[in-house]
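Justification of resources, computational component.

The compute hours requested in this renewal are based largely on the per-chain cost of generating structure records like the one below. Each record pairs the submitted sequence with a full structure-token output. That output is archived, and it is also reused by downstream analysis tasks.
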Amino acid sequence: MTIDPLNVQTIAAIATAVAAEQGGIAVIRVSGPAASKVVQSIVSIPGNQVWASHHVLYGHVMDKTGKEQVDEVLVLIMNAPRSFTGEDIVEIHCHGGLIAVQRVLEQVLAHPEVRRAMPGEFSQRAVMNGRLSLTQAEAIRDLVAARTYRAAELAMTGVDGGIQRHINKLRETLLDQLSEIEARVDFEDELPILDGQKLLDELIKVQLALQGLVEDANRGALLRQGLKVAIIGRPNVGKSSLLNRLSRRERAIVADLPGTTRDLLESEIVLEGVPIMLLDTAGIRSTNDELEQLGIARSHKALMAADVAILVFDLALGWREEDDALLANIPTGIPKLIVGNKADIANQSIITLPKGHAAKGINYVTYSAHTNEGEQALIAELLEKCGTAQTEGLIFALNERQRDLATLAAAALERTKEVAKQKLPWDFWSIDLREAIKKLGELTGEEITEPVLDRIFSRFCIGK
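The structure output for this chain reads:
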């Protein structure tokens, strides 16, 4: 699918992050048939610089009167089809921050032949003009959104076309089998007998490959989305100290007064390439303090949404009935880790430990937030609970949309087993086989409508 250049509008947007006092430069991207005309109308280019494709020119953006300089800029020209979108693109490299880049964008958008780009519209045009595959465009989004080196490495395999090639290979196998089936439907008397078991074996191979991709996608979600780890416990057991230690910075106020933490505190860390959001909750206890009650309610809510729960108790005081109650309140199915804090002041001869935790599959470690004793063991157990080992060996991982389509394709192939079992005619085989091929085509963009593309790219940021 390509865009008709006679009907397409010229679009513009800031293509780089914008923040106060951040970024020495910012880039405004203009794409479409009027890109050069728009930029030439607002930029003054001194001397004899030649406006030509793949040249960088120096100049100044001028205000609408043509008398006042708005910013000093570099202009990068890329004529179709040798550009990101496959259209004429002109980029204005101006100063970063907030004000300068916004002033330049205002001058661009003031031109009657340009409008502000919609979210993901540059990438969508690149796909529709054949410059990128759909999976490559989605991988670029993942690369920009990556919060860890490992997530970025995984995204790059998609940018390089690895996902596209792999899915295309599986789809071509199914297309080959479908062509054999359809030939038998139309010309069965003129062709050799088709071996149904051999055909089914080929379909099962593709199904297993798709199921493997779905499993890898679930593991890869850890690298993209990360995990929420709720730190819970009675007041003054060291939850905030643990958060500060793992975060390597003072995120939470630490005091001997029980109930110091009255709100939910968050701190993101990265362990073994997996982003982990630590949630420091208010100490859970009975109290008449309304503010503390509100914090405790938020703690319960955070616990319900957590992927992993760390229950901290005071090792010096020993395991209490209140700790048992807290452990019982952790939802079933959430991995749990018990941390006995204050190991540096605990009397080792009279330490009281939680009973039956090992039988329940709950790991237990001793730790000192004061001296950091036991940190490595704590981190090792936390990594195990977070399932970081699951991400080892991943080459690429489908995103949520792609995973769902691969699941539907595998389910369609599963239905062919029943067709084979009942020894139904060949045209019955083709129904589910066509469905699997269609879903894989939607995954790669081979069989997809513009409304679906609009929904996909609406999740991209503006300027991408």
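Confidence is low (pLDDT under 50) at residues 250-263. Residues 196 and 420 are 7 Å apart (CA to CA).
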